[in-house]
Design brief:
By secondary structure, the chain is an alpha/beta fold. It has a single domain (11-224), classed as Rossmann fold. 40% of the residues lie in helices and 15% in strands. Strand 6, helix 5 (180-192) and strand 7 form a beta-alpha-beta unit. It is globular. 35% of the residues are buried.
Length: 230
């Protein structure tokens, strides 16, 4: 804490880039001087000419290692919400997209850099980490990756920031009460102030529940797990 970050001349890659939040984050980061790379699983998606577009798919995250060597900040923003579906296919899809692919992307990004100390990973985990989202599989998969990030933070060679967002208006959530553009501005502003847990929501309980949960869980992991070098 305490240092002021700049995005000028930084290369930032954003997954879920074709979605409402992905587009808003890339636009705001470009406003701050960053070069944006759109990582998308939708080959037909349209992007501004100034954005480099790279198509990827879950299960083949390691294919992005060469791309990641040129990236300073990886923003993992993709996700899926199957709502009330609890079929075996829905379970597998939720875990693959919201949890396992995120973990694989993080590992690939770190492996791409011999010295990752100046690199960053941001992960949009959602306030479902600490509250209901009226979608059980979304909550389970987001809490899983949230827990894994807290565990990996114990030994990570780079900065890992959690992005905890409340309901913003998008194609997937047309009843969201926050503007994606304003949320993106809030996320980037807090990152510039070096916040490791970036909370942007209208729910005041999240500002109390998340730091408490993160502190207790981080302490638990330090006490009852070992470093890879141990």
């Amino acid at each position: 804490m305490g240092k002021s970050l700049t995005f000028a001349r930084k290369v930032v890659a954003v997954t879920g880039a074709s979605g409402t939040m992905g587009q808003a984050l890339m636009a705001e980061l470009q406003q701050q001087g960053a070069t944006a790379i759109a990582l998308t699983t939708s080959p037909q998606a349209d992007f501004a000419e100034a954005v480099q577009v790279i198509t990827w798919e879950t299960g083949r995250e390691a294919d992005l290692q060469a791309v990641f060597r040129e990236v300073d900040i990886l923003v993992i923003n993709h996700g899926i919400n199957v709502h009330g579906d609890r079929t075996a296919a829905a379970i597998a899809k939720s875990l693959e997209i919201n949890s396992l692919s995120v973990l694989a992307l993080m590992d690939t990004f770190i492996a791409a850099h011999e010295d990752a100390t100046a690199k960053e990973i941001w992960v949009n985990t959602s306030e479902a980490e600490v509250g209901p989202a009226l979608s059980p599989l979304y909550e389970i998969s987001k809490r899983l990756i949230g827990d894994l990030i807290t565990l990996k933070r114990q030994d990570a060679p780079c900065t890992i920031r959690k992005v905890i967002l409340g309901p913003f208006k998008s194609n997937l959530n047309p009843v969201g009460v926050m503007s994606a553009e304003k949320v993106a501005k809030g996320v980037v502003a807090r990152a510039k102030r070096d916040r490791r847990n970036i909370i942007v929501t209208i729910n005041p309980l999240t500002f109390l529940a998340f730091p408490l949960k993160e502190t207790i869980q981080s302490l638990y992991f330090r006490l009852f797990s070992r470093s890879p070098q141990a």
